[in-house]
TrEMBL record, chains A, B:
InterPro entries: Homeodomain-like_sf, HTH-type_TetR-like_transc_reg, HTH_TetR, Repressor_TetR_C, Tet_transcr_reg_TetR, Tet_transcr_reg_TetR-rel_C_sf
Signal peptide annotation: none
Name of the protein: TetR family transcriptional regulator
Domain of life: Bacteria
Keywords: DNA-binding, Repressor, Transcription, Transcription regulation
Record domain HTH tetR-type: where: 2-62
UniProt entry tagged with the keyword Transmembrane helix: no
DNA-binding stretch(es), residue numbering of this chain: 25-44
Length: 183, 183
């Protein structure tokens, strides 16, 4: 049976969400779709390319309307959307951060942060550093939150979760640093 | 053959550094040491407990003398030590961030950051948020840098690496945010 690329991608996201990143292999994906791995490679030339498409799909599904006007709020909007999109899929933070590190996808948030900062009058080098700093903060926070919640939920570890809701507070700290530079 | 806990731990770190996180299993560790997995479990009750000991060993090996006096420099010293310790071992950032998320180890850096901030006069709630923000930034940056360098070095991906040396610039941005709060 032939599958369209979009069907294979949708199944890959479902497989990731249900069984986690370690289960997301070309072999298993082919087996669940009733095709040879070569049929998967027809659509995605490599595991990295599949992961990149999965990361971009995770971000696309998390897209929310933009309503903020002031640049600090616009930055928060992008960072919050990114965080929630990753948290909405099992191992989403790991996948999106890995694909970003590979340079193969998940590039939307940084582009958008850079644009917000350029609009706010930041020089290009500050906009680049600040966008990457915000991204690294969001990745680091989301990775902890998701790993902790998943492990506790599986009964693998037993840790308190009440420190996790400090995402906005830490984000404000980075934004304050930026405000000092843009003043 | 009986092995001391420290021998098993040293071999686990060597296995991680040589073959990466996916190779670090209780079974493989036992096999390489010529013992049954049960002999490994005698020293480490679970895979999580082993990972926690490995993370703390990675941090211990990266320990450097403290010489800074002013609080921003003291924060930078702790963050830089953490970053370099993780980068010094294959998949070190992944292991340390995961163990921190599990709540099972790698707690030294946050404790030290909190102490530096308390000494600088930060209220406890700000010290807690700021320490976690710095940690998440360091984790996010180190994860990108390590994942990118390892993947490029293996020939798995081909991406430019020149954006990676911006660690200190991003750290300064967070420190500036903190400076604004402490002023």
């Amino acid at each position: 049976m032939a599958h369209r690329r979009s069907d294979v991608l949708a199944h890959a996201v479902a497989l990731l969400d249900t069984h986690g990143l370690s289960a997301l292999t070309m072999r298993r994906l082919g087996s669940e779709l009733g095709v040879q791995p070569s049929a998967i490679y027809h659509h995605f030339a490599s595991k990295q390319e599949l992961l990149a498409a999965v990361a971009d799909e995770i971000l696309a599904r998390g897209a929310r309307p933009r309503t903020a006007v002031a640049w600090p709020d616009r930055l928060r909007e992008v960072c919050t959307e990114l965080r929630l999109a990753m948290l909405a899929c099992t191992d989403g933070a790991d996948v999106v951060a890995t694909v970003w590190a590979f340079g193969l996808g998940a590039a939307g948030p940084v582009s958008e942060l850079e644009k917000v900062l350029a609009d706010a009058g930041a020089p290009a080098d500050l906009a680049a550093v600040a966008s990457r700093t915000l991204l690294h903060y969001v990745f680091g926070h989301a990775f902890e939150e998701q790993t902790a919640r998943q492990a506790v939920s599986l009964g693998a570890v037993d840790r308190p979760l009440e420190s996790l809701p400090d995402f906005d507070l830490g984000l404000d700290l980075v934004v304050d640093g930026l405000r000092a530079r843009l003043a």
